[in-house]
Protein backbone atom coordinates (compact mmCIF):
# COMPACT_ATOMS: atom_id res chain seq x y z
CA UNK A 1 0.00 0.00 0.00
CA UNK A 2 1.61 3.34 -1.01
CA UNK A 3 2.59 5.41 2.02
CA UNK A 4 1.40 8.69 0.45
CA UNK A 5 -2.27 7.67 0.40
CA UNK A 6 -4.70 9.78 2.44
CA UNK A 7 -5.49 7.88 5.67
CA UNK A 8 -9.15 7.39 4.76
CA UNK A 9 -8.19 5.90 1.39
CA UNK A 10 -5.48 3.69 2.88
CA UNK A 11 -7.98 2.25 5.37
CA UNK A 12 -10.85 1.84 2.87
CA UNK A 13 -11.98 -1.78 2.63
CA UNK A 14 -13.59 -1.18 -0.79
CA UNK A 15 -10.74 0.68 -2.48
CA UNK A 16 -9.69 -2.28 -4.62
CA UNK A 17 -13.29 -2.75 -5.83
CA UNK A 18 -14.40 0.84 -6.28
CA UNK A 19 -13.86 3.72 -8.69
CA UNK A 20 -10.46 4.34 -7.05
CA UNK A 21 -9.06 0.94 -8.05
CA UNK A 22 -5.81 1.25 -9.97
CA UNK A 23 -5.37 4.98 -9.36
CA UNK A 24 -2.05 6.31 -8.15
CA UNK A 25 -1.46 8.22 -4.94
CA UNK A 26 -1.74 11.66 -6.54
CA UNK A 27 -5.03 10.77 -8.26
CA UNK A 28 -6.43 9.29 -5.06
CA UNK A 29 -5.45 12.44 -3.20
CA UNK A 30 -7.39 14.49 -5.76
CA UNK A 31 -10.49 12.33 -5.21
CA UNK A 32 -9.99 12.54 -1.46
CA UNK A 33 -9.89 16.34 -1.60
CA UNK A 34 -13.41 16.59 -3.05
CA UNK A 35 -14.91 13.64 -1.15
CA UNK A 36 -16.39 13.30 2.28
CA UNK A 37 -17.51 10.37 4.36
CA UNK A 38 -21.23 9.84 4.92
CA UNK A 39 -22.95 7.21 6.99
CA UNK A 40 -26.54 6.11 6.40
CA UNK A 41 -28.69 4.28 8.89
CA UNK A 42 -30.90 1.45 7.62
CA UNK A 43 -33.91 3.04 5.94
CA UNK A 44 -32.24 6.40 5.32
CA UNK A 45 -32.21 7.70 1.72
CA UNK A 46 -29.12 8.73 -0.19
CA UNK A 47 -31.27 10.44 -2.81
CA UNK A 48 -34.86 10.60 -3.99
CA UNK A 49 -36.22 10.21 -7.51
CA UNK A 50 -36.71 13.63 -9.05
CA UNK A 51 -34.19 15.38 -6.81
CA UNK A 52 -31.33 17.34 -8.41
CA UNK A 53 -28.47 14.96 -9.20
CA UNK A 54 -25.94 16.80 -7.05
CA UNK A 55 -23.88 13.99 -5.48
CA UNK A 56 -22.50 10.54 -6.28
CA UNK A 57 -20.61 8.10 -4.09
CA UNK A 58 -18.56 4.96 -3.73
CA UNK A 59 -20.25 2.47 -1.41
CA UNK A 60 -17.69 1.38 1.19
CA UNK A 61 -19.84 -0.91 3.36
CA UNK A 62 -23.47 -1.94 3.67
CA UNK A 63 -26.17 -2.59 1.06
CA UNK A 64 -28.34 -0.03 -0.73
CA UNK A 65 -31.56 -0.58 -2.65
CA UNK A 66 -32.43 1.17 -5.90
CA UNK A 67 -36.18 1.65 -6.38
CA UNK A 68 -38.31 3.16 -9.11
CA UNK A 69 -41.90 4.40 -9.27
CA UNK A 70 -43.86 2.45 -11.89
CA UNK A 71 -46.55 3.86 -14.17
CA UNK A 72 -49.31 2.57 -11.87
CA UNK A 73 -47.80 4.39 -8.89
CA UNK A 74 -46.30 1.28 -7.31
CA UNK A 75 -42.68 1.20 -6.14
CA UNK A 76 -40.40 -1.50 -7.52
CA UNK A 77 -36.91 -2.35 -6.27
CA UNK A 78 -34.79 -2.61 -9.41
CA UNK A 79 -31.39 -3.36 -7.95
CA UNK A 80 -29.08 -3.73 -4.97
CA UNK A 81 -25.73 -2.00 -4.51
CA UNK A 82 -22.88 -3.65 -2.62
CA UNK A 83 -19.47 -2.40 -1.39
CA UNK A 84 -17.40 -1.17 -4.30
CA UNK A 85 -20.43 -0.14 -6.38
CA UNK A 86 -20.84 3.40 -7.68
CA UNK A 87 -23.90 5.20 -6.33
CA UNK A 88 -25.86 7.80 -8.30
CA UNK A 89 -25.52 9.15 -11.83
CA UNK A 90 -23.13 11.64 -13.37
CA UNK A 91 -23.95 14.01 -16.23
CA UNK A 92 -27.64 14.02 -15.27
CA UNK A 93 -29.83 16.86 -14.04
CA UNK A 94 -32.23 14.77 -11.94
CA UNK A 95 -32.13 11.47 -10.07
CA UNK A 96 -34.18 8.85 -11.90
CA UNK A 97 -34.29 6.41 -8.97
CA UNK A 98 -34.56 6.52 -5.20
CA UNK A 99 -31.53 5.05 -3.43
CA UNK A 100 -31.83 4.08 0.24
CA UNK A 101 -29.97 1.96 2.76
CA UNK A 102 -31.18 -1.57 3.45
CA UNK A 103 -28.54 -1.84 6.16
CA UNK A 104 -26.29 0.65 7.90
CA UNK A 105 -23.95 1.93 5.19
CA UNK A 106 -20.74 3.90 4.82
CA UNK A 107 -20.10 5.94 1.67
CA UNK A 108 -17.45 8.20 0.18
CA UNK A 109 -19.52 11.01 -1.35
CA UNK A 110 -18.48 13.37 -4.16
CA UNK A 111 -20.28 16.46 -5.53
CA UNK A 112 -21.08 15.73 -9.17
CA UNK A 113 -19.70 18.83 -10.88
CA UNK A 114 -16.22 18.68 -9.26
CA UNK A 115 -16.15 14.91 -9.86
CA UNK A 116 -17.01 15.38 -13.55
CA UNK A 117 -14.17 17.90 -13.86
CA UNK A 118 -11.79 15.53 -12.07
CA UNK A 119 -12.69 12.65 -14.38
CA UNK A 120 -11.96 14.87 -17.37
CA UNK A 121 -8.45 15.39 -16.00
CA UNK A 122 -7.98 11.68 -15.24
CA UNK A 123 -9.21 9.62 -18.24
CA UNK A 124 -8.24 6.31 -16.59
CA UNK A 125 -10.72 6.98 -13.80
CA UNK A 126 -13.37 7.90 -16.36
CA UNK A 127 -12.89 4.60 -18.17
CA UNK A 128 -13.12 2.73 -14.88
CA UNK A 129 -16.32 4.55 -13.98
CA UNK A 130 -17.81 3.54 -17.34
CA UNK A 131 -16.97 -0.12 -16.65
CA UNK A 132 -18.48 0.15 -13.16
CA UNK A 133 -21.64 1.74 -14.54
CA UNK A 134 -22.06 -0.96 -17.19
CA UNK A 135 -21.55 -3.65 -14.54
CA UNK A 136 -24.23 -2.05 -12.36
CA UNK A 137 -26.65 -1.97 -15.30
CA UNK A 138 -25.96 -5.65 -15.91
CA UNK A 139 -26.80 -6.37 -12.26
CA UNK A 140 -30.10 -4.50 -12.62
CA UNK A 141 -30.94 -6.57 -15.70
CA UNK A 142 -30.32 -9.73 -13.64
CA UNK A 143 -32.32 -8.45 -10.68
CA UNK A 144 -35.56 -7.36 -12.36
CA UNK A 145 -36.47 -10.75 -13.88
CA UNK A 146 -35.81 -12.36 -10.49
CA UNK A 147 -38.32 -10.06 -8.80
CA UNK A 148 -40.87 -10.81 -11.51
CA UNK A 149 -40.90 -14.52 -10.65
CA UNK A 150 -44.09 -15.62 -8.90
CA UNK A 151 -42.43 -18.24 -6.69
CA UNK A 152 -41.16 -16.88 -3.40
CA UNK A 153 -38.63 -19.69 -2.94
CA UNK A 154 -37.00 -18.78 -6.27
CA UNK A 155 -36.54 -15.20 -5.11
CA UNK A 156 -35.01 -16.24 -1.80
CA UNK A 157 -32.65 -18.75 -3.47
CA UNK A 158 -31.56 -16.20 -6.07
CA UNK A 159 -30.89 -13.56 -3.42
CA UNK A 160 -28.77 -15.98 -1.36
CA UNK A 161 -26.69 -16.84 -4.42
CA UNK A 162 -26.37 -13.17 -5.33
CA UNK A 163 -25.25 -12.15 -1.84
CA UNK A 164 -22.71 -14.99 -1.74
CA UNK A 165 -21.33 -13.99 -5.14
CA UNK A 166 -21.22 -10.25 -4.45
CA UNK A 167 -19.92 -10.85 -0.95
CA UNK A 168 -17.06 -12.94 -2.37
CA UNK A 169 -17.91 -16.00 -0.31
CA UNK A 170 -14.95 -18.13 0.63
CA UNK A 171 -14.09 -21.34 -1.18
CA UNK A 172 -16.36 -23.31 1.16
CA UNK A 173 -19.21 -20.92 0.28
CA UNK A 174 -19.47 -19.51 3.80
CA UNK A 175 -20.43 -15.86 4.17
CA UNK A 176 -22.18 -13.42 6.46
CA UNK A 177 -25.56 -12.16 5.33
CA UNK A 178 -25.28 -8.40 4.75
CA UNK A 179 -29.04 -8.05 5.31
CA UNK A 180 -31.46 -8.93 8.08
CA UNK A 181 -34.43 -11.16 7.28
CA UNK A 182 -36.61 -8.05 7.28
CA UNK A 183 -34.36 -6.28 4.78
CA UNK A 184 -34.27 -9.40 2.59
CA UNK A 185 -38.07 -9.45 2.63
CA UNK A 186 -38.18 -5.79 1.65
CA UNK A 187 -35.74 -6.34 -1.20
CA UNK A 188 -37.75 -9.29 -2.54
CA UNK A 189 -41.24 -7.87 -2.05
CA UNK A 190 -42.14 -10.66 0.38
CA UNK A 191 -43.27 -10.95 3.98
CA UNK A 192 -40.49 -11.56 6.50
CA UNK A 193 -42.28 -14.74 7.59
CA UNK A 194 -42.08 -16.03 4.02
CA UNK A 195 -38.34 -15.40 3.83
CA UNK A 196 -37.75 -17.10 7.19
CA UNK A 197 -39.90 -20.08 6.18
CA UNK A 198 -37.92 -20.68 2.99
CA UNK A 199 -34.58 -20.19 4.72
CA UNK A 200 -35.59 -22.83 7.25
CA UNK A 201 -36.80 -25.13 4.48
CA UNK A 202 -33.50 -24.74 2.59
CA UNK A 203 -31.65 -25.68 5.78
CA UNK A 204 -33.85 -28.72 6.41
CA UNK A 205 -33.35 -29.85 2.81
CA UNK A 206 -29.57 -29.66 3.15
CA UNK A 207 -29.11 -26.73 0.78
CA UNK A 208 -27.69 -24.29 3.32
CA UNK A 209 -26.39 -24.29 6.88
CA UNK A 210 -27.17 -21.39 9.20
CA UNK A 211 -25.02 -20.25 12.12
CA UNK A 212 -25.90 -17.42 14.48
CA UNK A 213 -27.97 -14.51 13.21
CA UNK A 214 -26.18 -13.93 9.90
CA UNK A 215 -23.83 -16.84 9.15
CA UNK A 216 -24.69 -18.89 6.02
CA UNK A 217 -22.92 -21.73 4.26
CA UNK A 218 -24.12 -22.82 0.83
CA UNK A 219 -24.07 -26.62 0.82
CA UNK A 220 -25.57 -27.21 -2.61
CA UNK A 221 -25.18 -24.30 -5.02
CA UNK A 222 -26.42 -26.36 -7.97
CA UNK A 223 -29.77 -27.14 -6.35
CA UNK A 224 -30.17 -23.55 -5.18
CA UNK A 225 -29.44 -22.36 -8.72
CA UNK A 226 -32.05 -24.81 -10.02
CA UNK A 227 -34.66 -23.40 -7.61
CA UNK A 228 -33.67 -19.84 -8.53
CA UNK A 229 -34.12 -20.67 -12.20
Automatic annotation (TrEMBL):
Xref: InterPro entries: cNMP-bd_dom, cNMP-bd_dom_sf, Env_Response_Regulators, HTH_CRP, RmlC-like_jellyroll, Tscrpt_reg_HTH_Crp-type_CS, WH-like_DNA-bd_sf, WH_DNA-bd_sf
Entry's Gene Ontology cellular component terms: cytosol
Taxonomic lineage: Bacteria, Pseudomonadati, Pseudomonadota, Alphaproteobacteria, Sphingomonadales
One Pfam family linked to the record: HTH_Crp_2
Name of the molecule in the record: Crp/Fnr family transcriptional regulator
PROSITE patterns associated with the record: HTH_CRP_1, HTH_CRP_2
Domain HTH crp-type: 150-222
Single GO MF descriptor: DNA binding
Keywords (A to Z) from UniProt: DNA-binding, Transcription, Transcription regulation
